[in-house]
Amino acid sequence: MKEYRNEHIIVHWYPELCAHPGTCLRLLPKVFNLEQRPWVNVDAAEPEEIIRAIDQCPSGALRYSLPKGSKVNAQRANGVGNLNYEDRNPSEVKIKVCSNGPLLVEGSSLLIGIDGKVLKEGGRIALCRCGYSEKRPFCDGVHSKKGWAPDRNDLI
């Protein structure tokens, strides 16, 4: 996990969970820019804008929290991208099948490996459907580079 912070917001990035759909890049390119280093610039937009973009991250790879003394109204920072969202908002688990993409799991859940250890705990997970991911069971976005599409036997 990597952190990018200023006095009003902390952005947490879990690269191993990123499915690379580019949602953050499209929604807020002045903050999320792969051409710059660091690629996350928390000073390029208001914290509330960053929060709105992170709340739409489909894989949960981007999260946020507020440091002590932040000017952000904590009530406005309670979305699904909040680092502590699952603790405060237990919900049913929903699994969405993405056309030509991963399975998106939303809701408080545990992903447990064959050894019985927890691989991921949280509110959003993108799971590989194509079998090409280098980070299985997580999606790494390689399906789009490989041109993968479900076949006729893929009922979902």
Secondary-structure map:
Elements: E1 2-5, E2 10-13, H1 23-27, H2 47-54, E3 62-65, H3 85-88, E4 94-97, E5 103-112, E6 118-127, H4 142-146
Antiparallel strand pairs: 1-2, 2-3, 4-5, 5-6
Pfam families: Fer4_19 (PF06902), zf-CDGSH (PF09360)
Keywords: 2Fe-2S, Iron, Iron-sulfur, Metal-binding
Protein name: Iron-binding zinc finger CDGSH type domain-containing protein
Protein described:
This protein is an alpha+beta fold and 156 residues long. The chain has two domains: 2-87, Alpha-Beta Plaits (2-Layer Sandwich), CATH 3.30.70.20; 90-146, Ribosomal Protein L9, domain 1 (3-Layer(aba) Sandwich), CATH 3.40.5. Helices cover 14% and strands 23% of the residues. The strands form two sheets. It has a three-stranded antiparallel β-sheet with strand order 1-2-3, with no helix packed on it. The protein has a three-stranded antiparallel β-sheet with strand order 4-5-6. Strand 1 and strand 2 form a beta hairpin.
